[in-house]
Amino acid sequence: MRCVSVCVRGEWFRVPCGSTSGSIQLLGSEALRRYHQAKKVKDADNKLEFSMLRCQGGELLHPEDKAEDVLEDNDFVQLVFEAENDPHGCSPLASAVQRSYQEPTECISLDGNSLTTADLVSLGQGLFKIKLTPESEERVKKGREVIDAYIRENKVVYGVNTGFGKFAQTLIPKEKLVQLQENVVRSHCAGVGAPVSVERTRMLLVLRINVLAKGYSGVSMETLDAMIKAFNASCLSWVPEKGTVGASGDLAPLAHLTLGLMGEGRMWSPQSGWADAKAVLEGHGLKPIVLKPKEGLALINGTQLISSLGAEAVERAVAVARQADVIAALTLEALKGTNKAFHSAIHAVRPHPGQIEVAGRLRSLLDSKIFPSQISESQRSFNRVQDAYTLRCIPQVHGVVNDTIAFVHRVISTELNSATDNPLVFAETGETISGGNFHGEYPAKALDYLAIGVHELGSISERRIERLVNPSLSELPAFLVNDGGLNSGFMIAHCTAAALVSESKALCHPSSVDSLSTSAATEDHVSMGGWAARKALRVVEHVEQVLAIELLAACQALEFLRPLKSTAPLEKVYELLRSVVSPWDRDRVMSPDIEAAHTLIRQQKVWGAVQPYMDEYKKKLQA
To answer: What is the tens place of the pLDDT at every residue in 540-577?
Structure first.
């Protein structure tokens, strides 16, 4: 029989749709009856009028429609009293994420060894489902056999039949082993703050699945399969973003992740929005996980919050760094700078990989025989020798950022495919060994380094914005606008860039230099990697926004050099921006323009505009 989940004042009920003649009105009345029965109250609400909303999309359901005609099996519906402003339910849960969500058809196979940062971000965006490789399934089964054997033989294993942390010496009787695992999850759900976004929760869940797929954690295939089904249905737990010290792993966030899978707390899906976890799981035909010995500890012990956020930070850093080179080239052209400082001979004698790469990009974008620039040609008789450091030293400053990102990418990529549980189960020898792979120092240090490195792109960009808007440095109208005084132009946009750079300076203080002893001095050194990851993401976003302002300013500066044209690739960037932002001929609200430019950078469209030209440049050089 078809069933749907109905929310009444924050409580969820599974209600059969009944016969083929069952109406939406009857469905609501039955849900209300069950609500009264559960609350042990009289039918005081029976005379109140109510409406029924389908949670996905928020459509109002007509009371006389047949339920089977307008609702799917396992659908989610909210009952709302007309006289109340219901604060409990999905109200109406038609968020942009829900409306735009499309169930993926393609699948990525996880083996615990080959997940990339790019794959993880794509999985977070809901672009793929997942499955395990046969080899990883076999490893998981063998690992579980070791734990089951230890239990049968009454061997003492940390976290299987002992307490945790300070209580590691306390033995737990066999009849309480399941309760032990449930208790560790519930007690560790102590996070605070806003929930991690839907996309980042997907990343967190799939990364934990990938690590468990290595077979060193001792979980059962039954539990791992339940996690995979939850991911593929996009049933995602409520995970507060704060509460991890990054050793012993990301305990609080992963505990919240596990709690929802157990059918407790809150959970989100595209069909239900945020709702009772058990109702969400049942609404998708899934059962809550029943933890076996060792599994509670296995699911919460690891660096997956640090690493998943770190993967996103690295991927966005890669994207913003290469687009920073394009935007810097546009600024240099608008300021009539020289490209002499990017000659290959200069960089060959200081052969840092990033520096050489950035100089090469600049040569492919700026004036050359392949892509001539009318602006540069107009300045040739002036024979400018050199520019200010913010223009002349782009390869040296941007270059080290590229090298920093490459280093961090290697660390995070290794972490994504590492066993970070404790104790680890080695099926080959039948051993469980306690260690410290849960310690987040590696990703914490790397992400602190990433924030420091990427910040410099924003710092030097803000200085180039200053050169664009300052008439004594640019030979352009003050603040890039006509009728100065009546119009303020880019005056405050530059202030915004300065504010973002200053805020990032504080965020660049390394979180991993701090450590506070926890768990009664058992866990006496921690990484603070969760904060390292969160602030790295904030720094990357600030840099994207500063570069968006530079892009706007550089394109506005070109307006005052017309009818002269820049190179073909840089004109393509100009056209891209002008497709979403018009030239600044008088004062207007600037925020939408900044957001539009930021979106272009987030979507990597600036890079996409020039990449074909850069490829063409390389081919013609090699011909």
So the answer is: 999 999 999 999 999 999 999 999 999 999 999 999 99
Q: Which helix (H) or strand (E) holds 108?
A: strand 107-110
Q: Is 195 strand, coil or helix?
A: strand
Q: What gap in Å lies between CA 279 and CA 73, rounded to an integer?
A: 14
- State CA 607 to chain mean position distance: 21
The residue ranking higher by pLDDT, 109 or 37, is: 109
Exposure of 486 by Cβ count < 10 A (0-12 exposed, 13-18 middle, 19+ buried)? Answer: exposed
Any alpha helices (H) in 301-440, and if so which ranges?
A: 304-334, 344-348, 353-365, 374-378, 389-392, 394-416
Beta-strand runs (E) in 182-260: 192-195, 236-237, 240-242
Cα 219 from Cα 293, distance rounded (Å): 9
Phi then psi dihedrals of residue 470, to 5 deg = -90, 110
Q: Name residue 580's amino acid.
A: V
Whether the predicted pLDDT of 86 surpasses 50 = no
* Interacting residues of 543 by C-beta distance below 8 A, sequence separation 6+: 320, 324, 454, 455, 457, 458, 461, 504
Question: Which has the closest alpha carbon to 24: 83, 65, 57, 58?
Answer: 65
d(CA 93, CA 101): 13
pTM: 0.87
For residue range 378-415, list pLDDT tens digits in order: 987 776 779 999 999 999 999 999 999 999 999 999 99
- The CA distance from 113 to 419, in Å, is 10
606 closest CA partner among 574, 561, 583, 584: 574
User: Between β-strands 192-195 and 11-16, what pairing exists: parallel, antiparallel or unpaired?
Assistant: unpaired
Pair type for strands 76-81 and 3-8: parallel
Positions marked active-site: 158
Q: What share of the chain is helix, strand, coil (3-state, %, to 5)?
A: 55, 10, 35
